[in-house]
Amino acid sequence: MEKKSNINFVNVAMFALIFLFVAVSKINSISSILIVIAIIPMVLLTMGSDIKFSGFILMLACVEAYIINGAEYALLVAFVYLIPAFISGIVFLSDEYIDRNGVKYKIKVRKNGDDFRFISIKALLLSMIFFVIGSMIYIVSVKYLLNIDIIKELRVVLNDTLQNVLEVYKNSLKPSEYEKIVSSGVLDILKDTSTVVLVLCFSRSLIFSLVSYFICIKLYSCFYSEKTMCVPIESIYFPGRPVSVLFYSILLMFLIDYSYPNLGVSTMIGGYIIIMNMLFFMEGVSIIIYAVKNWKKIKSRVNVLIFAFLVIFLGVVPGISILGMFDNSFDLRKRWNLTM
């Protein structure tokens, strides 16, 4: 009985936090970060309470947003933040492993004498997808329901910013250096608003899903009776064959662009590569953390020159992304640690 009352108290606290964050997030630019933090209590409430109750709270929060700041803010709160957080909570709670015979079961991990329910990296990827879809629905809904074209507004801002940046580069760089930047194709990517919107949506959705997965799952174990655990940061490994998917999909996009140049697929390729590199960057950071934590055991089998070469010749971010691709293709952790 006492355990149930504690859970009810936590649920009420999560409900209060959601309403508070939605109410005060539009006061000024600093408080706007609170609507992002509202993702955390929404995920926890969905995982820790009845789905009907958490769904009802979600609906009330959206109504509150509409009353306080109108339809645009309500759509923003609903589709960009709370609905994807609500669905993520459901995904985390129902995450199951399916074996080759089609049998579903939840994975339990024994740690420090306690049983933890393991929530796989698949749940993180699904959460990411839901946040991306939510952002896209928001952009479409405000355009057709409220006649607010976010992409058009962003195009104006991007063009102004791009012109200012080009002026600075023209005045500060040598003509040959400036031509290198222009010929690299980076400016073409920035000029293509649809690509920029896609990258921005994915970047934001990636951050929100990481918060939902790594923070909420750990907090759930603190506030609720069931113990849960996520994939440790040093063990992030994306399932499937994303490197092969990247290669074949880019090849397909080039073929489509060659066959149908009017579709403008070439401008999307750069954005798509950036998005995939974000995922590989995550895995690259993960393998670096793993190497640092297990250095004493694996140092004799780690080729440090690879790290140095990638970072020096490709740069920090691209180098780490390539390292993530290597790990995904060759499973570096297993090669380094023979006990795995």
UniProtKB/TrEMBL annotation:
<feature type="transmembrane region" description="Helical">
    <location>
        <begin position="119"/>
        <end position="140"/>
    </location>
</feature>
<feature type="transmembrane region" description="Helical">
    <location>
        <begin position="53"/>
        <end position="69"/>
    </location>
</feature>
<keyword id="KW-0472">Membrane</keyword>
<dbReference type="InterPro" id="IPR018710">
    <property type="entry name" value="DUF2232"/>
</dbReference>
<feature type="transmembrane region" description="Helical">
    <location>
        <begin position="268"/>
        <end position="292"/>
    </location>
</feature>
<feature type="transmembrane region" description="Helical">
    <location>
        <begin position="75"/>
        <end position="98"/>
    </location>
</feature>
<protein>
    <submittedName>
        <fullName>DUF2232 domain-containing protein</fullName>
    </submittedName>
</protein>
<feature type="transmembrane region" description="Helical">
    <location>
        <begin position="7"/>
        <end position="24"/>
    </location>
</feature>
<feature type="transmembrane region" description="Helical">
    <location>
        <begin position="196"/>
        <end position="216"/>
    </location>
</feature>
<feature type="transmembrane region" description="Helical">
    <location>
        <begin position="236"/>
        <end position="256"/>
    </location>
</feature>
<dbReference type="Pfam" id="PF09991">
    <property type="entry name" value="DUF2232"/>
</dbReference>
<keyword id="KW-0812">Transmembrane</keyword>
<feature type="transmembrane region" description="Helical">
    <location>
        <begin position="30"/>
        <end position="46"/>
    </location>
</feature>
<feature type="transmembrane region" description="Helical">
    <location>
        <begin position="304"/>
        <end position="326"/>
    </location>
</feature>
<keyword id="KW-1133">Transmembrane helix</keyword>
